[in-house]
Design a protein that fits this description.
Blueprint lengths: L4 H23 L23 H6 L21 H16 L5 H14 L3 H13 L4 H8 L9 H16 L4 H35 L16
Length: about 220
C-alpha cells in the first residue's frame, strides 16, 4: 500500500512523538536522584581522593574529572574504594578461573544484585569469552537450567545458592571443586563477591542506567 504525502507526514510525526516519549520516560528520574550520576549521590571529583587512590582509580576518572564506574560510590570512603580495587585485581586479574567461567560468574553476581552497570559492561565480554547467548538469557531472566551445559549450570547454580538461598548445597560445592579445584571454587566466591559489593553500593544509591542503556528486567 502506498501512503499519500499527508499520510507519510503524519506517520513521521507520530514516530517522532513516540521516540520523544520513550526518551522522556528514560530521562525521568525520582526526585532524590542526581541528574548527572543518576543516583542518590553525586559523582566525586578526582580531587576528593587521596593521592594513592587517585593513581589507582585513574582509569575510572572521566574527562570532567569526576570518578565514575563501579567504584564511584564506594569512593566516598577512598580506603574502601582502594581495597575493592585491590580485591578485584586479586580475584579477577590474578585468579585461576578461565575467562569463560569468570565472565559467567560476574554476570550471575550482577543478576543477583540487579547491577545494571557491570551487567551491561560484561555481557559483551561474556559473549566474546564463548558464553552461549541462551545461557546469558537464562541468567538474565533467572530461568530454569534445563539444556544448559553442566559446567555453566554449575556456575549459575553456585551463584544463585550463594546469593539467593544464602546456603551452598554440598553437591553444588563438590561440583565446583570437581571442575575448578579447591582454589578455583574459592576464586569463584571471590569474583562473585567483588562484583556483588559494587552492586550493593548501586542498590543503596538507587543507581539507574544511562539513557539508552538497558536495565535488567524484574524477575522473581
Amino acid at each position: 500500500m502506498t501512503l499519500s504525502l499527508t499520510s507519510r507526514k503524519w506517520t513521521a510525526i507520530l514516530f517522532a512523538a513516540s521516540a520523544c516519549a520513550i526518551v522522556a520516560a528514560q530521562s525521568k528520574l525520582p526526585a532524590d536522584l542526581d541528574a548527572q550520576s543518576r543516583a542518590r549521590l553525586p559523582y566525586l571529583n578526582k580531587s576528593d581522593l587521596d593521592a594513592k587512590t587517585q593513581k589507582s582509580l585513574e582509569p575510572f576518572v572521566n574527562k570532567d574529572d569526576t570518578l565514575r564506574g563501579p567504584l564511584a560510590f564506594a569512593a566516598y570512603n577512598p580506603g574502601v574504594a582502594q581495597a575493592l580495587f585491590d580485591l578485584h585485581n586479586a580475584a579477577v586479574q590474578a585468579g585461576t578461573l578461565d575467562p569463560h567461567t569468570r565472565e559467567l560468574a560476574i554476570l550471575v553476581a550482577c543478576r543477583e544484585t540487579n547491577y545494571n552497570l557491570e551487567w551491561n559492561g560484561h555481557e559483551p565480554a561474556a559473549r566474546k569469552a564463548g558464553v552461549d547467548p541462551k545461557v546469558i538469557d537464562a541468567v538474565r531472566l533467572r530461568r530454569a537450567l534445563d539444556g544448559v551445559n553442566e559446567k555453566d549450570a554449575a556456575v549459575i547454580r553456585f551463584g544463585r545458592e550463594l546469593f539467593h538461598d544464602k546456603k551452598v548445597d554440598s553437591a553444588t560445592f563438590a561440583k565446583a571443586v570437581e571442575f575448578w579445584g579447591k582454589r578455583g571454587a574459592m576464586d569463584m566466591v571471590a569474583v562473585m563477591s567483588t562484583y556483588a559489593v559494587s552492586g550493593y553500593f548501586a542498590i543503596a544509591v538507587d543507581e539507574r542506567s544511562p539513557d539508552g542503556k538497558p536495565e535488567l528486567p524484574a524477575v522473581k
